[in-house]
Design goal:
By secondary structure, this protein is an alpha+beta fold. The chain has three helices and two strands. Strands 1-2 form a two-stranded antiparallel ribbon.
């Protein structure tokens, strides 16, 4: 998913902030627990207020993922 997220970051650079988190690193355990990540990959989309509005477990293409930014 890292290449997909890089594509999203480039295409929507003025509209979307992309944060890619490696969930296997110990330093990210707090985020993994907070968001309840149990499957890799997982995409969690937050609105401007930081509220989750979309979650998907598994692979999504950049085209599929971009539908949730419109």
């Amino acid at each position: 998913m890292e290449s997909v997220m890089d594509e999203i970051k480039r295409e929507y650079r003025n509209r979307v902030k992309v944060v890619f988190v490696n969930v296997s690193q110990k330093d990210n355990k707090e985020l993994v627990d907070y968001f309840g990540i149990v499957t890799i990959p997982t995409q969690v989309l937050l609105n401007k207020e930081g509220k989750e509005y979309f979650r998907h477990n598994g692979y999504l293409s950049a085209e599929e993922l971009s539908k949730y930014f419109r």
